[in-house]
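quick one: 6R9 bound model?
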Amino acid sequence: MSETLANLSSESRQFPPPEALAAAANVKADAYEEAAADRLAFWATQADRLDWAKKWDQTLDWSNPPFAKWFVNGELNVAYNCVDRHVEAGRGDRVAIHWEGEPGDTRTITYAELLKLVSQAANTLTDLGVGAGDRVAIYLPMIPEAAVAMLACARVGATHSVVFGGFSVQALSTRIQDADAKLVITADGGYRRGKPSALKPTVDEAVAQCPSIENVLVVRRTGQDVAWNDKDKWWHETVEQAGTEHKAQPFDAEHPLFILYTSGTTGKPKGILHTTGGYLTQVSYTHNAVFDLKPESDVYWCTADIGWVTGHSYIVYGPLSNGATQVMYEGTPDTPGRDRFWQIVDKYKVSILYTAPTLIRTMMKWGDDIPAGYDLSSLRILGSVGEPINPEAWMWYRENIGRERCPVVDTWWQTETGGIMISPLPGVTATKPGSAMTPLPGITADVVDDQAQSVPNGGGGFLVLRDPWPSMLRTIWGDDQRFLDTYWSRFGAGAGSGDDWIYFAGDGSKKDEDGALWLLGRVDDVMLVSGHNISTTEVESALVSHPSVAEAAVVGATDPTTGQAIVAFVIPRGNVETEGDIGEQLNVDLRNHVAKTLGPIAKPRQIMLVPELPKTRSGKIMRRLLKDVAENRSLGDVTTLQDSAVMDLISAGMQTGKSED
Ligand code: 6R9
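yep, here:
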C-alpha cells in the first residue's frame, strides 16, 4: 500500500528537563504508568482536584457512543471551584489577575475581589431573567469583565458563547441566532494598536437581526460615544450596583458550560459544546501538569484572546481552578513598541509563558535584539499552541526567550478536545524541537493509515484519539448528525467498521523513530505532488530553517505536470534585503534549500516574498485563501480573517511576482 503521508524531515536535537525542575515537578513519570494501568481510575483521581457538591457514581458512561457522560450524577459549580473555594481556604488576598490595559492602565484583582465581581454579575444575570440553561453571547475585549462574565454565567448555569471581539456583524449575528441567546455582554470598545476600537456598533447591528436578545449589557471601557437602544444597560449601573453576595448552586456534571464556534480554517462554523465536570477536571489537571504550576510562587501568562478556546481553558477555567496568579493583557504585541511582551514579562516577573507560533515567528522577524534588552530571568517554562511550531522557531524561543534554561512545551489540542492532549511534561520529557512528543497520561492518541491501522515508527498518517477523554466535546450544538459525520465517521465503529469508536482529529501526523509525535497540519491542506502526499508543515519548516526566513505558508496549486505543485509564500526576517537581484537570488536559494533539506520532491515551484500572511484571530494561517491566490481564483470567505487588507497586498505582489527560474 502507498504511504499515507510522507515523512521527509528528521531532527536529532533533544533537551532533557532541567534537573531541579524535574526533581520538584508536580507530575513525574509514574503518572503515565498509573494512567495506563487504569485510565478511568486515573481520571477519577484527577476529578478529586475539584470540590464536588455531590460525588459521581460512575466515572464514564460510554454506552451510547459517541455521546459520552463523565462523572455521572456528580454535581458541582464551576465558578465556585474557580473562585469561592480559594477564598474559603484563606487565599482571598492572592492576586488572581494582574491586568494590563494597552494604554498602560492596570488593575490588580485578588481572589476575594473576583468573588465579589462574579457574585455581582451573577445577581445581575438573575435580575435580567437569565438562569440555568439559557445562552449568553459575550463579545468583549481582553478586559477582566470578560472572565467575570464567563464565570457569572457558569455560576448561574447559563451557557456562554464567546465571540471574538474582532468578528463582523454577520459572524456575531449568526452565532447569536444559532445558540438562540437571550443576552449579549459587550463593551463600548477596547484599545487596539494605540486607539479605541469600537465594539458596540457591531452589536447594535447584529442585535437588530436577533429577536431572541432581550438585553444588552455594556461595559464602559474606552468612554467613546455609543448609540443607546431600549435593550441596552450599562454594566456600571447594573452589575457594579448589585449585591456582592451570591450563593452558587451546584449543577450536574453534564450541564452545558459553553458553546464555542470554530470554523477552523475552513467551512461553516460549528458550535462546539462543552459541559462542566469532565471539562474542568481535564483543564485543571493539564494546567497543573503541563505548566508545573506552583500557585504560591508562579506568575502565569497566556497571551491568547479570550475568544479562542485557549483563552477559555488556559486563561479562565484551568488557571483559576488551580488558584493561579496570572497576567492578562488587553492589546497587541507591538503597542506602543515591539518590546511590549518582554516589558510585561519583566514587570510582573512572569514565570510561565504560553503563546502561539505565529507570535514567536513574528518576534523572530522583529529581531533578537528586542528581547535581549530585557531581564527574562523570571521565566521557567515556555508553552506553544495553535499550530505546528517549526523547529527553528522552537529553537529561537528556547534560546532568545528561555535563554536555554526553560523547557518548551508544545501543546497539541483543539476546541473540540477542550484541553491539552499531546504535550511534553516539563519535568519528565526530553523534548525535541518541533514535536509535541507524547499523549498526556490518560490520553490515547495514535497515527493511523486510511484503514485505521496504526502506522509504525517513521510513518505518517491521520491523528486519531482511541478512547474518550473527560473534556471531549459532547456534540455540535443542535446538530448531532454533523458531530457524528465530522469526527466519528472516518474510522472504526462510526464508519461501520470495527467495534471501536475512533475520533478523527482532522490533522496529519507522523511518528518519528522513537515514536514521538509530530503534527503536520490539517489533512485538508496536504499536497499531492507527483503521487506523494506532502504536508505543508514540513515544507514550511524547511523554509523557516533558512536564516533569511521568519515565516512561510505553503499550498498545493493545480499543476498540469505534477497534479499539484508547491507554491510558497515567505516573510523574510527583519534585516533581509529583498530588492532586485538580491531578491531573485534569495528566491533561488530558498527553493534549493528546501530541495536539499527534504529532497527534490518537495522543491517549491514558486516562491513569493510577502510582507504578511492571512491569519485567523488565533494566528492560524488561512492556506485556503493563499490557494485561491496561487490558482488565480477570486477569494473565498474572508469573514474570519484577522486583517483583510493582507490579501490585497499579497494578490498585488502575486501579479508582479516572478514565478519560474
Ligand atoms: C487549541 C487550538 C485546533 C487545530 C488543531 C491543529 C492546530 C493546535 C497545535 C496544532 C500542531 C500544535 N494545532 N495546536 N498543530 N501543533 N501544538 O488551537 O484549538 O483553534 O480549535 O485549533 O490547531 O491543526 O487541529 P483550535
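Residues 262, 308-310, 385-388, 410-415, 436, 505-507, 519, 522, 618 surround 6R9 (CB under 6 Å).
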